[in-house]
Amino acid sequence: MKKTLLFLSTALFLATSCVDSLDDYNVDPKSATKVLSVTLVSNAERSLARTVTSSSVNLNPFRLFVQYWAQTTYFDESIYNITTRPIPASFWTALYRDVLADLRESKKIIAADQLISTGVRNNQNAIVEVLEVYTWSTLVDTFGNVPYSKALDINNPQPSYDDAATVYNDLIARLDAAIGQMNTTAGSGAFEGGDLLYGGDMASWKKFANSLKLRLALTISDVDNTKASQMAQQAASNVLTSNEENAQLNFLSTAPNTNPVWEDLIQSGRFDFVGAGTFITRLNTLNDPRRNDYFKLAANGTYRGGVYGTNNNYATYSAPGDKLEDPTMPGVLLSYSQVEFLLAEAVERGYAVGGTAAGHYNAGVTASILEWGGTQAEATTYLAQPTVAYATATGTYKQKIGVQKWIALYGQPVDSWREYRRLDSPTLTAPTGALSALPLRLTYPVVEQNLNGANYKAASSAIGGDLVTTKIFWDKF
Fold first, then answer.
1. Closest CA to 157 of 450, 442, 443, 444
2. Does the pLDDT value for residue 18 go beyond 90?
3. Cys bridge to 280: 15, 85, 275, 287, which one at CB 3.0-4.6 A?
């Protein structure tokens, strides 16, 4: 017995003497110990697409702000109650924590990776930069001044806020640098299959980056026309040229990678939304061929919109269409249709981007109809109507483009809300009983007031007050 105990003691000693501590045994062989940059980029792309396309009233109320939809039982967000549910905090956190933090960490890993070539490293960094510029610009467009230069530092939990226009200028410079370092001949090594937007195809990323540059250019056109013109002219020759090139994430049919709109409309088992009369009436008036894609027929066999800003009987009005109930419906960040409307506006502003305003306008309308499953014949018939044709439609170029862009951006509510504010078209009014005028920004999260109070107060003062009616710097008219 003593020999047995001695043997076991000796064996245990020999086994433990080969390791630094017993912690070395406490390793899960099925769990990763190192994070790869590609996984962080994939997660950031997924989070970004979900955030900007979501229909959750807790996160993304912008389909309601631009009056695509009305609500049924609860209508708080349609009267601009954004604080009962902490909507500003949800949107803010989704972009800072779930997108930007992952992208920032991925840069560190890319920099430390000695196994990739310089060309692939440059392409990976360029992709991350484009995603960051898109996300930062979305934050600025939503809130105004935001923490930027001091943000995402775990050692600085109370970052100061940067001036929104200054942030935009820096983003434009970063985007230019990213475009300049993209190498379309370096192969597909830029995250390979982990890039959920373009699969590492740098030619496509370059078009997306230039299209984003064009969007930023037109966004600042009322405050810096000279810079906007220069940017638009630089970008115009290499932007998206077809629906197949849309910057979009293709969701899957199984959880957890389904489209969040399907989750709200179908998976939830709820019936919270119907089409708003504001939008459906316009579609009816224009005989728009996208009606049957955007909405279902109401019980009376017509496309009928509910009353915006109050509760509506779900069965009485047109519910969101079948395409929105598809779990695989793509989440679009930037579309070809959108690009063509930007080019139409650029021509009207006198920027040398090629083509005519009418030609780009027609291409934008057509691209949207085709994107949603319509036909070229339907687009041709639609554009032939005097109420739609560019030469005869009512209003200034901003009003004509604004109305058709509003219709086309149905699946891109964050973009639609920005373009509505920027172009002041279509004309939308707050409903009776609204808590404010139609929001021009989201207020800062309450957590910022509580935990970053001094910087919150400085930022609020700098923008003219932390109100939903305070305009973003580029919203001049």
1. 450
2. no
3. 275
